[in-house]
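User: Sequence in, structure out. Go.
Assistant: Echoing your sequence, followed by the structure tokens.
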Amino acid sequence: MAALWIALVVFSMIGGGAAAGEVGVCYGLKGDNLPPPPQVVALFKQYGIQNIRLFNPEPPVLDALAGTGIAVMLGVLNADIPVIASSQAAAQQWFDANVAPYLNSVNFSYITVGNEVIPGGDGTTIAGAMQNLYSVLTANNLPIKVSTVLPISVLGTSYPPSAGQFTAELDGVMRAILAVLAQIQSPLMINIYPYFAYASDPINIRSDYALFTATGTVVQDGPLSYSNLFDAMVDAFISAMEKAGGGEVGVVVTETGWPSLGNENLTSPEIAGIYNRNLLDHIKANGTPKRPTATIDGYFFALFNENQKPGLFIEQNWGLFYPDMTPVYPVFGAAPAPAPAPATGPALA
């Protein structure tokens, strides 16, 4: 997805632990009718969203988040990666400009080095940039983790999940990235979209498998049984990581969702609501077949329908909310009612 988007933390799938996954929402800025950041932050509070991902530093958003305690995952622009990779001094300059001014007011949880740089771009500087930023953070005694975000298209094979493997062209790049992540004990971040897999082959991929509504096993992969496509896609990534020497590295699902309009009978508010509500229930209760005790956190994509997003019309219809902040369909349930205003008249005996 486009690099200027801001996303709320909704899913990380990290090895170990059985606690429920956390919930967040992707917050994009490509619209001419979106509410200002202070109102959006109030919306986060209203629905109890406590984790936010920013694809790049956005001062008005960071200003609005000041003092809220909301955890912020901050992104590095893809174009900035080669400079940051060139030296620790360059990484320090990026940190001084984009993180240091907010350290006393904003709760940073992650820094993500690029968004979907590969395939299609030069990924050879990602590992070095991660290492340099990590060195800056540790020198400043900051417990902020560093990672990068990848799409499932970095896999050359994804079916069955146990056969998951990175493309031959990316094997070396991925081994370098995973080695750094293992060293600094950070998860790899991945974008998982069952919608796109289903929409590309609706004859052979069952809708109940894509929407978490299958009542039994749909795919049997050796000893592992899959009843939903989301788990199968995540586990394909994990299988590829194992083959590239990163089996101990966790994963974070940084984007997932379902569009509500734009592809005839494959998209509607009702279908999108089914996927996202079932996903919410799934991450609160389950790991994947390969990592059944792992927590799954993640990012719903997206917060708002954005009328200036480029590409097909469907790209403007991933939001959970309209720009006026009313729900496109319910996911989190009803928002808490605001507290009543205090009485202004005289007290009655």
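User: And one key feature?
Assistant: Confidence is low (pLDDT under 50) at residues 1-18, 338-349.
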